[in-house]
């Protein structure tokens, strides 16, 4: 009998009871605004910032309304403005170039490798085009950060890290977000901790973080921040930095604090699911798994593989066949954006670029969410279904023009 997966790829775990209890306490007293406190009360948002700074080892942390707002604020705090160019990944999600466009700047896209990380050779060739790199650790894949920082430091290029998919991850023991001037995180529902929407900005530069805090809408209440630069840093900044409100509120912070305390355990659970899918897909003809370097302490809330050099119709057939068996895959190679998937040539507010080497890789990227509502048995089943359907299309002759395609391969 043909196996069918009956789970949901979009159903997250419930908020932990400790988060529900904390949220109810905020609702009962009604002080949702981060600066609305009573007596010597410390706002949930201020406590969350302290805890996230401690988790990452950063001096400063700012909690904001979304990961996109975190990136936009980081760009503004670094002085990026109208007409400037900003380097960023060609393989990323729309909020990244969207943040660049939001400050009136123009994205300059940098290619992607078969390991789904930024192409350092392409980056080196483009470093003279901009003074800032907004680096996306897309889908949790982290490049050689020592090599990247050496290139950017030598060229005087400031690095801002988009860590929406790498909360709790590291490269060589250094947490994601701690390499650049700013690290930006998301707490949107499909990220590693869930408040529906939300985000963080971390860094060690006191002046840059003071600007970010003012930008977020602190008014003159910046002294109520605990994971922040000292008040004297704000003396000049407070007069010349606009208020572009994007604060996190105490309700979301209350929901997040218990989840943050349990982040390490949750990350280990995600990685176990990832390894189960990976083991099930090992040595599948026509399918390329993405290697995970020894120095990459990754956190997997999603899974990617490549159907490299497959015809578009054949990739589409795999997607459709898997969906008919309950496995929901997303494809980054489609000519039209769909759902959350889009690619650099979809973002027509950005100047047109030609990246043929990246186009080849994007055309083969298949993506799948891994919510913690899945079990290890679920992941083994999902891998069997993908393996079956990739194998069926591979053996059908639909990939006859792809390199190393089988010729009269016997049925398995």
Topology of helices and strands:
Elements: H1 17-29, H2 44-56, E1 60-64, H3 67-77, E2 85-89, H4 95-102, E3 106-110, H5 120-126, E4 132-136, H6 145-155, E5 158-162, E6 170-171, E7 174-175, E8 182-186, E9 199-203, H7 206-215, H8 234-240, H9 250-261, H10 263-281, E10 288-289, E11 296-297, E12 302-306, H11 312-324, E13 330-331, H12 356-362, E14 365-369, H13 376-395
Keywords:
alpha/beta; 13% strand; single chain; Aspartate Aminotransferase, domain 2; disordered C terminus; 412 residues; 37% helix; 4-stranded antiparallel beta sheet; 13 helices; 7-stranded mixed beta sheet; 2 domains; Aspartate Aminotransferase, domain 1
> What number of domains?
2
Q: How would the global form be characterised?
A: globular
Biggest sheet strand line-up: 1-9-8-5-4-2-3
What's the oligomerization state?
A: single chain
Low-confidence stretches: 405-412
Give me the secondary-structure category. alpha/beta
Strand and helix order: HHEHEHEHEHEEEEEHHHHEEEHEHEH
The CATH C-level class name of the largest domain: Alpha Beta
* Portion in beta strands: 5-15%
User: What is the name of the CATH topology of the largest domain?
Assistant: Aspartate Aminotransferase, domain 2
Main pleated sheet: 7 strands, mixed
Number of strands: 14
Number of helices: 13
Q: Give the integer mean of the pLDDT values.
A: 95
**How far from one another are the termini?**
16 Å
Radius of gyration: 22 Å
Give the CATH H-level superfamily of the largest domain: Type I PLP-dependent aspartate aminotransferase-like (Major domain)
Q: Mind telling me which CATH architecture of the largest domain this is?
A: 3-Layer(aba) Sandwich
Give the proportion of residues in helices: 25-40%
């Amino acid at each position: 009998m043909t196996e069918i997966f009956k789970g949901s790829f979009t159903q997250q775990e419930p908020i932990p009871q400790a988060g529900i209890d904390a949220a109810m306490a905020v609702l009962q007293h009604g002080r949702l605004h981060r600066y609305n406190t009573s007596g010597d009360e410390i706002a949930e948002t201020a406590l969350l910032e302290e805890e996230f700074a401690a988790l990452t080892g950063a001096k400063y942390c700012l909690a904001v309304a979304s990961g996109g707002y975190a990136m936009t604020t980081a760009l503004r705090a670094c002085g990026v403005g109208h007409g400037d160019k900003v380097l960023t990944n060609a393989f990323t999600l729309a909020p990244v170039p969207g943040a660049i466009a939001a400050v009136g700047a123009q994205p300059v896209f940098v290619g992607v490798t078969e390991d789904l990380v930024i192409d350092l050779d392409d980056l080196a060739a483009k470093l003279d085009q901009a003074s800032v790199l907004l680096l996306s650790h897309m889908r949790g894949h982290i490049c050689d950060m020592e090599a990247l920082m050496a290139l950017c430091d030598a060229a005087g290029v400031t690095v801002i890290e988009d860590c929406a998919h790498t909360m709790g991850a590291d490269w060589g023991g250094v947490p994601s977000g701690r390499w650049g001037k700013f690290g930006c995180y998301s707490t949107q529902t499909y990220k590693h901790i869930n408040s529906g929407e939300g985000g963080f900005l971390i860094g060690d530069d006191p002046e840059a973080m003071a600007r970010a805090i003012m930008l977020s809408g602190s008014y003159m209440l910046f002294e109520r921040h605990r994971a922040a630069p000292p008040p004297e840093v704000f003396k000049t900044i407070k007069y010349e930095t606009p208020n572009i409100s994007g604060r996190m509120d105490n309700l979301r912070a209350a929901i997040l604090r218990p989840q943050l305390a349990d982040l390490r355990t949750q990350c280990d659970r995600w990685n176990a699911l990832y390894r189960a899918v990976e083991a099930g897909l090992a040595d599948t003809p026509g399918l390329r798994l993405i290697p995970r370097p020894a120095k990459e302490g990754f956190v997997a809330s999603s899974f990617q593989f490549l159907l490299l050099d497959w015809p578009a119709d054949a990739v589409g057939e795999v997607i459709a066949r898997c969906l008919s068996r309950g496995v929901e895959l997303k494809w980054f190679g489609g000519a039209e954006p769909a759902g959350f998937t889009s690619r650099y040539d979809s973002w027509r507010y950005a100047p047109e670029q030609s990246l043929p080497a990246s186009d080849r890789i994007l055309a083969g990227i298949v993506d799948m969410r891994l919510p913690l509502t899945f079990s290890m048995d679920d992941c083994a089943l999902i891998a069997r279904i993908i393996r079956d359907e990739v194998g069926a299309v591979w053996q059908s002759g639909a990939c006859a023009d792809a390199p190393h395609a089988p010729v009269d391969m016997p049925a398995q």
